[in-house]
Amino acid sequence: MIFTETCLHSAFVVDIEPREDERGFFSRSFCQEEFARHGLKETIAQANISWNSKAGTVRGMHFQAPPAAETKFIRVTRGALFDVIVDLRPESPTFGKHFGVELSADNHRALYVPERFAHGFMTLEDDTEATYQVGEFYTPGAEGGLRFDDPTLAIVWPRAAAVVSGKDEQWLPFEAQRATILSSMKKV
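User: That's the sequence. What structure does it adopt?
Assistant: Structure tokens below.
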């Protein structure tokens, strides 16, 4: 596996190293030892699937606050999406900054999302499916979110949003939540 750190400290794009032959290829997509060598949380508490019927579907921007903060390791198994993370660590020099990357079934790329980050995506193709390996159990009381179209975050999505849940449309903008995020997202 090839780990490339993004502009947001501790967040990595992970590419596979396929071993090819006449049948196709074989590659590791996760390895506890390699994650640990890169200082990443290697615990998996849940594995989730997100299937999306329409291109332009937006999910996010979601997060869980400590002590239930989640790591996520996202890979697309069908279709393609534009995946975005926002650093919500108050002590981080990149607090409030974001990073986006295309993940697809064709590029086999994955994104490692550290704890105390918001995460969301927009599908680029109909019938897109993503898998998430999550480092903490879902805890409804710790859940939060940011508006995907927040002007302060200034995320440049690749197309207009076609489908957004009512819940995701109700998240408050980053600036309206700044004080709460600063206090709730402190390192535990």
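The chain has a mean pLDDT of 95.
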